[in-house]
Amino acid sequence: MKYIISMFFIVGLFTNTLANELTQEKIKSFLLESDRFVLSKNVNKIGELLDENVDIIINVDFNGNKQKTKLTKGEYLVKTKEGFDSTQNYSYKILDRKISIKDNIAYVSEQAQEKYTYNNEMITGSSKVNNQIKLINNKLKFVKIEVVLNNIQIDKLK
Predict the structure, then answer these.
(1) Which long-range contacts (CB under 8 A, 24 or more apart) does 30-34 make?
(2) How far is Cα 101 from Cα 156, in angstroms, rounded to an integer?
(3) Between β-strands 139-156 and 121-136, what pairing exists: parallel, antiparallel or unpaired?
């Protein structure tokens, strides 16, 4: 009887260990959920995907003028909400996405394109995004986000 209980305990531990491992499929599912929150402009749900100590760096290259900004989670969510509230016809498309997993960290590199209307202007831009995702307290969380925005074009609407 003691061995049967031990076997159940070992199988339970093994199953729990497997459930807590990062896999390509789990990361893909997490990223699709993230994409849905971005497209629906759901800042609260986006916030739930970020670790409290997430490292966020935004690099903007506009007509040769480069700016680098480091944001806290709170600052990022405020700026994201302000951006969503002030734009119309927002679209976000992932052009390429690569995922690798090493030492229980998922490394995600993406090429994306954004397009939206702001202040009677159509704005399009490309971005390269490098994310790191970890399993924290049995939940996937972004722990690092680095964005490089470039190829920004502004066209006046008629």
Answers:
(1) 30/133, 30/140, 31/97, 31/99, 31/108, 34/142
(2) 43
(3) antiparallel
- The tens place of each residue's pLDDT in the chain, 158 residues long, gives 444 444 444 444 443 433 468 899 999 999 999 999 988 989 999 999 999 999 999 998 877 788 999 999 999 999 999 988 888 888 888 899 999 999 999 999 999 888 888 888 888 888 899 999 999 998 999 999 999 988 778 888 87
Cβ of 142: how many Cβ atoms within 10 Å?
22
- pTM for the whole thing? 0.82
Residue 111 near residue 128 (C-beta atoms within 8 A): yes
What is the number of other CB atoms lying within 10 angstroms of the CB of residue 109? Answer: 14
DSSP-assigned letters across all residues of 42-73: -HHHHHHTEEEEEEEEEEEEETTEEEEEEE-H
